[in-house]
Design a protein that fits this description.
Layout lengths: L7 H13 L6 H4 L2 H8 L3 H8 L9 H15 L10 H8 L3 H8 L7 H10 L11 H20 L3 H6 L1 H7 L5 H17 L3
Helix pairs in contact: 1-9, 3-4, 3-9, 6-7
Length: 194
């Protein structure tokens, strides 16, 4: 293994490989690189390199934001299939077209509110515009990891959500406490898409 596997991303890749019975070095041939690029905002060639344990060049924050904005515009079209105009993106962000043009050209950065407006509109993961390539890919791989581990251990998601621990404690609770606990467990289940 190369140094590229010695990170949080590497730990996630090792867990995905182990859960599926694969070698970590084979993941770049098995995982859907195009989908991972779309979800993470990381170019396909960088996704492949990271899956292979190679390091990729990181950029400064304004450049990363500019690249991700361009990527979002290229990969998330309007309902009619056409790309969003810069004016439309500015409206979504809650800023002026002139200020969005500054971000677009790498001369400025959105504030947290503007970045959050874009993230929510396009249903992007938290940190999408600012995450390093390794962080962005690692975040996108969490869904793959969760699916792989649930296949191996169907109770894994319930355990991760705390539902099993709640159920184990229920025997010592009053009827009223158990009812509240059940309500909370149902809330957790809905929030974690069970």
């Amino acid at each position: 293994m190369t140094d590229g596997y010695e990170s949080r991303l590497g730990a996630t890749l090792r867990r995905i490989a182990a859960a599926n019975g694969f070698q970590i070095e084979d993941l770049s041939d098995i995982l859907d690189i195009k989908d991972l690029a779309h979800c993470s905002g990381v170019p396909q060639e960088d996704v492949r390199a990271l899956l292979e344990g190679r390091n990729v060049e990181d950029t400064d924050l304004p450049t990363r934001i500019r690249q991700r904005l361009h990527f979002v515009r290229d990969t998330h079209p309007r309902p009619d299939g056409k790309p969003y105009t810069l004016s439309e993106l500015a409206d979504i962000a809650g800023t002026s077209r002139q200020w969005l043009s500054e971000w677009w050209n790498g001369r400025g950065m959105p504030n947290m509110e503007h970045a959050e407006n874009l993230r929510r509109h396009f249903d992007l993961p938290a940190g999408y515009l600012t995450a390093t390539p390794q962080e962005a890919l690692n975040a996108s791989l969490q869904r793959v990891l969760q699916d792989a581990e649930v296949t191996v251990d169907p109770k894994a998601r319930m355990r991760d959500a705390g539902i099993i621990q709640l159920a184990e404690r229920a025997a010592g609770l009053s009827a009223h406490q158990r009812e509240k606990l059940l309500d909370f467990a149902e809330f957790l289940a809905r929030g974690n898409d069970f």
